[in-house]
Amino acid sequence: MDDRHARIEALAAARGRIAVRLTAAMVLIYFGFIGLVAFARPVLARLLTPGLSVGIVLGALVIVASWTLTWIYVRWANLKYDVELDRLRGRA
Description:
two-stranded antiparallel sheet, single chain
């Protein structure tokens, strides 16, 4: 029973680590963009093509980054977390 408890704690710790890392990445991306909006408006206002500015592109990339980070977590959970959890439950 002790080994099982240690494995559960290790799995919970791994989930916590990935959650903190992905959250930190999203916070940095989002607040980096907000910082640019607040302090570097001329940079964001530069037109790449008529009707498309640097700010629009970076704003879209913030959204894509959130999707990507979510995909990374789901992929990790499906390939590692759920598999180990099933093993601990005795289903695998």
